Amino acid sequence: MNDDIRPNRLLQALAYGVAIGTSLLFLYPYWWMLVSAFRPTRNILSAPLRPWPETLNFQIFSEIGRIGGVDLSTYVVNSLVITTLSTALGVIVTALGAYALVRRPKAPGFSLVRYGFLVTIMYPYMLLVIPVYLVMFKLGLLGSYAGIILFLALGPLQFFLFEQFFRKIPNEVIEAAVIDGASEWQILTRVVLPMAAPITATVAMITFLLNWAQWFPIMVISRSPDTYTLPVALLSMNSELGSNFQGIMALAVLTTLPVALLFLFAQKRVMEGMAAGAVKG
Amino acid sequence: MTDILATLSRDRIFYLFVAPFAALTILFGVWPILLSIQVSFTASATALRPNPTYVGLANYVAVLADPIFLASLGRTLLYTLLSVVANLAFALGFAILLDSRLLKRGSLFFRLAIFLPVITPDVAGYVVWRWLYDRSFGALNAFLTMVGLPPFGGLSSFDTAMLAILIAELWHHAGFYMIIFLANLSIRDRALEEAAHLDGATTWQRWRYVILPQLRPALVINSVYALIQFLKTFTVVVVMTKGGPNDQTNFVSYYAYQLFDQARYGEATAMATILFAIVIGLSLTAYRLGDREPGQ
Questions:
Q1: Within an 8 Å CB–CB cutoff, is residue B270 touching chain A?
Q2: How confident is the model at residue A242 (pLDDT cuts 50, 70, 90)?
Q3: What are the pLDDT digits (tens) for A156-193?
Q4: Of A227, A234, B29, B48, which sees the most CB atoms within 10 A?
């Protein structure tokens, strides 16, 4: 845009000041967490503001090797397994479901499925988890990985992103395939899925980030800490009396770092995807 | 009838595609919601038995007569209102700043800094905030003391607990609302602004009468999302305050969960149903208000 008002120098300096100041305030908790993970608790007590650790000592990660009677490595593996499998399952199930609902919106029963899903995502999530406990009990899935993974599979953002994408596929593309004699299965696997590769990658990335952060359903469905993930372990460690402050910060680092790095690696995809998924909702 | 059968048979592959999605939606969505509503009409002590005792609306009456619930609901609504306004104002302000021509460089860095908390596991974020506020460990009060300001009561003081968790939640959520405003700002019609400028509109007039009306979609979406988000505030309470001090942050979700924990299933599910109705009612109202406004 051609504008004859030259940005005022003072205003510009002010804008940078606000932007930099706010950004640093938003990032400071990460820095404090990281520094505190490397400082003995008594040192933090005497100087909470020290901007870097006295020494770079990784000792704490072996000190928190067992939390609540379970190996730290178990929580790490649980986090990886539960997040990966629920993401894979969620992407496949949601993509197929959204595709069918978009292609045949008037098929008997389909609008019921859609409304059922929309009502579910309106229900206060934390209060949904409570009756889910009863359902898991009735299905015999309480305390199982299967129960946790199945529950985490569906999410609103994922569904809206796929629905939005499939709606934008021009009818002509599909009709051309029909005229060429392709079956619905062939249309899906040879026409639609190749087109859907980028959106699938976006949805998978976002689902992974969201499911990694999950804690309440995992805590409720679990029968023992053996199926806890990192956030759940962190929460139970934080609730203990006489907290090991340094250990809590080290565990918070372990919980945060993988997804923070993954996000920075795919930031454009994640931010654009989340904005697009929300705008549909 | 034959028509329907013909459709069903022609579309059977689509039923196959939708089946797993429908199964998960029913098992972990529709069924638990119906179960929850059913339990809300039963006596807690019998709720989990095969033949529960139905008590009609007794649980709803008990909940609505419970002074702790009413106080909790009032605080939930107050907290929601404050949070929605604070988050949207912050997100809109920062989006405008990032979108403006004043910031030529570094825009991506600023955006990442504000958005990073959104994908940070909320438990981890709130655990760090809890300790940042801590009187003896926390960096916040150490800083305030250093610069000679009075200490911040944080989570332990009745007067500041709500503000403290509002700030932590803003840190976690505002980046999400910001990118929606940014997406909306990037697709606005810039020719309109140029025309307004040529017509002699001031910067303020351009913002108020040209740009803001075009941001209505993002404002509506963000209001509805934020309403739903903050009405069900839960994790931050579990991690940071456990409802305290003196019930000041004992919001409805948390209170219902506590009742559930004490096996008062009937009242807990009645509360869940009431909150569900409030969420739906307020969201629909927000949509309506957003659609009805003139000037588009």
A1: no
A2: low
A3: 889 999 999 999 999 899 999 989 988 889 999 999 99
A4: A234
Which of A23-37, A133-147, B14-28, B41-55 has the weakest average pLDDT?
B41-55
Q: Per-domain residue ranges for chain A?
A: 7-36, 70-280
Residue B81: C-alpha distances to residues B76, B224, B230, B284, B287 (Å): 9, 12, 8, 16, 16
- Name the minimum distance, in Å, from the CA of A123 to any CA of chain B: 6
Q: Which helix (H) or strand (E) holds B288?
A: helix B265-292
With beta carbons less than 8 A apart as the criterion, state whether B63 and B267 touch: yes
pLDDT at A240: 76
Q: In the prediction, which pLDDT does A241 show? A: 63
- Specify the CATH architecture of the domain A70-280: Orthogonal Bundle (1.10)
Amino acid at A145: Y
Q: What percent of chain B has pLDDT over 70?
A: 96
Identify the CA nearest to B222 among candidates B83, B120, B82, B84: B84
Put simply, the answer to whether A33 touches B221 (Cβ < 8 Å) is no
> Measured at the alpha carbon of residue B294, what is the angle toward residues B288 and B296, in degrees to the nearest 5?
100
Per-residue pLDDT reduced to its tens digit, A120-131: 888 888 888 888
How many beta carbons lie within 10 A of that of residue A198, not counting itself? 11
CB atoms within 10 A of CB A253: 20
Cα–Cα distances in Å, from A180 out to A99, A190, A196, B171?
Answer: 21, 13, 21, 54
Measured distance CA(A209)–CA(A201) in Å, rounded: 12
User: Residue A231: pLDDT band by 50, 70, 90 thresholds?
Assistant: very high
How far is Cα A133 from Cα A37, in angstroms, rounded to an integer? 35
Question: Which residues of chain A are within 8 Å of residue B253 when distances are taken between CB atoms?
Answer: 124, 126-127
Question: Which pLDDT tens digit goes with each residue over B233-278?
Answer: 999 999 999 888 888 899 999 999 999 889 898 999 999 999 989 9
CB contact under 8 A, B142 and A2: no
CB contact under 8 A, A48 and B137: yes
Report all structural domains of chain B as residue ranges with CATH numbers, in order of start.
Answer: 60-292 (1.10.3720.10)
